[in-house]
Amino acid sequence: xxxxxQSNSHQTVITTFDVTPGTCQDLLDxxxxxxxxxxxxxxxxxxxxxxVNDAQTRIASYSQWRKREDFQAMLRTDEMRVRNRQISxxxxxxxxxxxxxxxxxx
Length: 106
Description:
Layout: E1 11-18, H1 21-37, E2 45-52, E3 58-65, H2 68-76, H3 78-89, E4 93-99
Antiparallel strand pairs: 1-3, 1-4, 2-3
Helix pairs in contact: 1-3
């Protein structure tokens, strides 16, 4: 489970996927398989959470990596390149963005 903390040295990656209600579940199935079978086994992977809005038009993933280079290396693998082409076919767009945690509140 992701743990959000300012003192955390992890690299945070938030990816948003723009989908239709008709493709939302298909993309969720693809993403779930990618995380279960491949991404979670890559060096530096820490955790991920998948989120869907109530209209099923957006999916967001909140993932944490030990360091930026680990995430970038995973993206460059042949397997992830193939998976990203499949993912791209099910959504209008998707964009992974790297963030640093600057504050948390409980």
